[in-house]
Structure formats: structure tokens, C-alpha cells
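Aim 2, interim progress. The first record below pairs a target sequence with its C-alpha cells.
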Amino acid sequence: MPTDKIPVLEVSDIQATVLRPRPSPYRGQYVVLRIDDAAQGREMLRRIIPYVAPADDWWLPTLPGWMGIAFTYHGLEALGLPATSLKTFPQEFREGMASRASILRDVGDSAPANWEYPFGTRDMHVAIAIYSKDEESLEATLALARQSHHDLPNISVVYRLRFSELPNGCNPFGFKDGLHNPNVEGSGAVVHPGSGRPVKAGEFIMGYPDELGATAISPEPEVLRRNGTFVAFRKFHMRVAAFRHYLREQAASPEDEDLIAAKMVGRWRSGAPLALAAEQDDPELGADQDRNNAFGFGDDMHGLKCPFGAHIRRVNPRDALKNELVATNLHQFLRRGTNYGPPLPEGVLEDDGAQRGGVFLLIGVHQRQQFEFVQSQWITDGNFISHGREEDPILGNSGGEGFFTIPKRPVRRRLHGLPQFVAVQGGEYCFMPGLRALKWLAGLEAGPTAE
């Protein structure tokens, strides 16, 4: 059973990306490396560790920028981690995200065959996220990152992606983003009303009790897993013009367009939740961190305010499932999102060919019951809300065959022919170690024996 004792988290050993949201404003770059020589890989790691940000002093101006680092299964293999240790990692991590496409319903345009290189291949080894406050600081931080492998010929960059904050902190669809994350017990983060009851730290970081009172016993050895976690990396292309065009086709007026969009998402573009502003947008509410998450769905069991199938209600049902045999706290994960590409100019309904979208780091110790469960059950299966084949209107991939139900009295409204607004362009499961574990990995020689 869970313990009521709040553990003291070793925040100086936990990577900042796990517990601290990305700053605002921000500019950054994702970099993926391939390791073709284990000794050079460990040397690269030794050089880059001083720039990996711990959670206790996130965003202090001691460096021009900050880094987070994670490894795929093949990356740990390339570093020389012994097979005795590798086999203790969870199945989904060892198999890789591409091999689990049928579970995640990554089909059609989102199928791994359509992903960008190196996603879904054995060449993706090390994923580095670099954050800075402005372009000048980013360039200085990137120079530090390059120095870590500039004279190591068997370390190669196989992928780069620049990202930055869009105007007003919105995503490419124009909605205020990054408004809700679970309240991690003992994290020291500022807690705003509506964050929900604290979730046990062991759901997100190894070495602490989880919601069932258990503490992770793998991967082995203990020095490797302590203060580490797993990250589901997902890159999405967002079809903004298609979204706007569909709204225009379905709506009777510009106000109706805004309402339909809000019904699909569960919030207005300002961030104001339908649960608190069902009829019209309330930008003041959307901007108020003490109010914009202070809501539930328990008083809206007919979905008249926020539809059952709305994006935010599907990925986080809050109190709507309180009478069901579903422990919602077992299916939460931390979400760190960034945007790439230029915003589509206001009013444009035709695709301009630019690449734009979002990259999401979905963080949790139990990826199978966290990210995989939410993706396969709540996002792409409507049965848990008695909606059959109805998928998430934003993240679903019905490819033009989708539909979305808006409860309404006396007669519900149902939208048909829902296009696929988001396509997966790449994904992978990564292991994000604690700082001490990084140093241990960097010091591997022949490799220790797993516990």
C-alpha cells in the first residue's frame, strides 16, 4: 500500500527536464548522436556531463544554456553496458517504439515506415535536448555541445531539430499550451489550484515509492536506475491549414468556428477551460494560473460543457471516472512540449508546405501503463467513454473517416469526415539517468556485473 510519508527527492541528482518545465521564452535544439565506438562514447559523456542541468538549480545563469540527455536501448548497448544489465530494462524500452506501432496505433501516415531518419532505426543512440533563453545563448550552448565530440570521429550527429516558443505561448493550432502537469509529491515545484492531489514520485522517478507503494527494482544495477526515468519521445507534424479548413466547413460563423475548436480541445484558445467557461472564451481566466486548472468533470457527466471526447478530457479524465474501476493516477505522465517551425499566418486556409508541429517528451517510470495506456485506450479507443470507434479529435488518426460528438440538448451534434490533423514523424523510448548514473556510465570499462 502507498505510504503517507513524503520522500525527500534528490533533486541535485535528477535531471532538470524531469521535474522542471521548460522556461519561457525559450529557444533550443534536439540533437541525436550515434556511437560507433564505446570508449569514445564514454569520453563524450564525460565531457558533456558538466552541462547537464540538475533539477535543484534549473535556469540559474551560470551557463548560457542547459542540457538534458537520454539514451535508447541501442545507445546503452553502444556505450558498452553489459547484456546482464540490458536485459533488466522493461520490454517496451528494449523493443523500441517503432516495434510497438500496432499497440500505439501508429498506422497510415503515422506508421514507422513514414518516420524521419533515424527514428525507428538502430542508429538513434543518444538524444540531447538543449535549452537557452535566446538565440545568442543557444549558439554558445551548441558550441559547448559540439566540443564534447569534435575530435571523436566515431561519434556522429544523425539528427538536429531547432525549436522555439511561438507567440503568446501557443501551439501551432493557436491554443495556449503546457497548462497542466501532474503534481509530483516532494518535487518542490510551485503548485497551483487544480493540480490535483500529489502523485507519488515513484510514478515518475525511480528510487521512490509509486502509487501502489512499490519502488522500482529494475533496471540493474541500482546505481544506474536511481533517480532515473523513461521518456517517450514523440515528434508530430501538425496540419494547421487542414484544421482551419475543417472548422470553416463545419461552422456557420467565425464564432461557431471558435466554439467547435474549443469543443475539440476542451479549452478555448486562451487556455480557459470549457468546464469553467462553457459559452464563450474568457482570456483572463485562461491567463490565471490559479484558476485555469481548478476544475473537474464530475459535475458535467453529460458532457454539455466539455464533450467526453474532447482532447483534454480524454488524456486526463480527472474526476469523471471516479466511479469506474480506473485508478487515473496510475496513468499520468509528465509532459514537456516544444514547438518547431513558423506559425501559419492568421486566416490562411491553404497549406504553405512548411514543416511545423510539436515535440513531446512524455516522462514516466511505467511507460506501458502511462503513455502506452493513454495512447492506446484513451486517445484512440472510444470505449471507455462509450463512444465506440470515436478517437481523440486532435491526436486521432482516422484519416478522414473520423467523427466527433458534441453533446447538446435537445439533439447532440456529430461532426463527420474528421481528417487526421496530427501525424507522427518520429518516436522512441529513451532512458534518462540521474547525474550519478551518468558518471557511472561514463566510467564503464569492461563493464560491472549487474546486481
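The second target in this work package is listed in the same format:
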Amino acid sequence: MKNYTSKIFKVIFLIGIGPSIQAQSLLHKNDLMKMETYFDARLANVAAEDSLVSTSINTKIKATEITALQQEIWAVWNSVNSRRETLPLPTQAARGLQDYKLHQWELVNENPLPYYYIQKGSIGHTKLPLFLNLHGSGPKEMELKATLAWSLRYRDSPSRYFIPQIPNERRYRWWLKPVQLAWEKLLRLAMLDQQIDPNALYVMGISEGGYGSQRLAAFYADYFAGAGPMAGGEPLKNAPPENFKHLAFSFQTGANDTGFGRNKLTLSAKNALDSLEHLFPGDFVHNIVLQEGRGHGIDYTLTSPWLVQYKRKPNPRYVNWIWFPMDGRYRKGFYNIAIEQSPVSLKDNPQYDRVRFDIDMDKATNTITIKTKLLNPDMTAQQALKKGKIAIFVNNELIDLSKKVTIIYNDKNIGQQKIVPTVSALVESVALFADPNRIYPAKIQLAL
């Protein structure tokens, strides 16, 4: 471990992720060892963990050290990940179809996931957007080739595309647990790639890929700048529209696409998002269109040029989150919220499987207001929560860390707290969110 610690110091110095990083680490060697062990454990146990795992690195830090420590800890995270896996070099797109290299990821309890990874255009002076593009539910070899062809045609260059093939035609769903883990790996590795813009990640797809992209957008809305389902239509309980706050949402479906009620479900999404945009102007940007005279085949070229105009907001003041299960699995966090203990007990209360969180972080008054409700799957009935714990990670963009923070929970003032920045908050938020824009120096814990 001693030799590896010295390698970490070299990595921190050589990666060059920021001019303020120091040759001499601000962290103790024991903290570095604990951090590396913690990061390895989180990556190894990602399929089993369902809540935030705390660290024993409780070293307090000075406000003047936060930026340098964020860079240093991110460099260690980068090093630990790089030992395991990185994204492959993308195949440069050419005119017409060619023999693009087909890569493959192993999945947990499922067949492997083949995928194309391509780049359109050159890097230039700015980082590239990345599109996750999901195919429809025909024979998977044919669907994969068709989706590659569409990806090459879309007018969004320069860009990168991750184009997966469904692992198993008997389980033709893009939101099942084994592929959830693949998307989380893709997001994690994309955040580490210096040529990808972490605020320009998008998900889109046609038909079955439309269903999948709508669900994934609601589940991972804190990562995606935008989402573009096409020729799809999910019931809103499968993709709660409240989660699309701060996400640019495009939805193109044929007006005559009556199969499985796709046109009606698309209209339902439009009505819901129209209402939310009216209540929260500017927060629910969307472009939902029923293409006149079209059935299941529509003009697919309109989506990605619209999406690529929008960037992600990684640290919004307001967070609305319907915490819901997808294939029986819940997220451990969303934006700056982390689940420390599940607020749902399906064994004791099977009619209620999700929770609504509404959080307002007001830096002007240094007040965090939290409201929660236990919801049924259709989100038509609610109850008060009786259990659960969350952590709210914070930085100086959201609140003033130098002052006490007032906490109001379900309309009750529960007091003020002095928030102390610690190494543990930085480390835990890196492992939980794997996001360079969400490395938080402090957290507030709350029993629900």
C-alpha cells in the first residue's frame, strides 16, 4: 500500500485537472489509503448497494482548501477507475456504413452488451456532447445497424454516440437492472473522459428505444442535459414528469401512431409538462410534437439538433424528485440528495412504492426547505413518511457554508446547523455521483 500511495501522489500531480492543484497533497497518507479502499469498494459493490455508504475520513478542512481538495480527490477517483476500465477510443465516422468496431461489456446476470462507440467530426476547442442512442424492438442485428445509420445521419456534429445492442431479445427492455448498471458505468466513465462535456449528455431512441429513453430520462435526470424519445409513449407513472425539471425534453410521435396508445401517451406527457412549465416558467423546457399524418414511422432527424442546444444544470436551487423504482431498483441519490435509509417499506405498506421530495435551497436566507410525501404507483394518493433518512450535500453555490443553515421540514422549523466541511463529504459525493460538478464539501443529515 505504501508504494501505491506514492503512485497516487504522482497521478494527482500529473493529471493536471486544474492549475491550483498542488504538488504536495493536502491529505494525510492514511486518508489517501482509506479513500482508495473506499472507492474500490463502491465500484465493486455497485450492484448490491441501495443507500449511501459513509466513510471514516472525518478530517475537517478549511474553506480555502476546498477547491484544491476537490481536484485532488477527483484525481484519485480517476486513478482508481482507470485501473478498472475506461471508454474505448471512438471509431471516427465516415460517409456511408463501414465496418465499425463492435465493443462489448459484460453484464451482471445477463448476456453481454455489444455497442458501437463513434465520433462525428473533430474535437476542436470545446468538449463533445455524448448521445446514448437506443434501438427499437426488431431483430437486434438489424435494429443495431439501422440505429447506427440514423446516428450518422443526425445533424449534431461534432459529437459522440454510444449505440448499444439489446443483450437478450427475450428481455427486450432498456430499463432492466442489468442494463441500468451499464448506463451507470457509461455515465461514470463519460464524466472521466476529458474530451466529453459532462454537462452535454443526452439519451434518445426510437420505438422500444423511445420507451427506454423516456424511462431513463426520468430515472437519471440529474445526469442528462436532455432526452429525446421518438415513436414511443410511457404511462407517466413509469417516467414521472416532475423529474424532468431542469432537463430539456423532446418527444416526437406520429399523430396516427395508435399502437399501444403511443399517440395518447405522448399527448399525456405534453399536457403534464405544459402544466408544470406554467407553474415553473423556464424549468420544464420541452418540445413535444405529434407529427401530422404520420404513424409509427416519423421524421427522426429533428430530435438531436434540438437537444444539443441545451446544457445540464448540475446544481439547481430547486429539486423535485419522484423517487421511484425501475425493475425493483431505486436510485441512491439525485442531484445533491442521497438516500441513507429507505423511506419505503413495501412489505409493510405495499400500496406506496415511491416518495416525492421537494427541496428549495435559498442561499439569500441560508434556508433549506424540504417537503416529502409517500405516494402510490399512480401518484394519485399520498401519506406522510414514517421512516427513512436522507443526506443533502451542499456547497457554496447552494448555501453559504460560513453561516448557520436553517432547516425547515414539512413546514416545521427544526433548527439551525453550522455546516462543517469535511473530507468525508467530498469523498462520499464523488463515489455516489461520479460527477466533477457535484463534489460537495459538506452534507446535512435528516431523519424523515
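The longest strand covers residues 110-120. This observation will shape the mutagenesis plan for the next reporting period.
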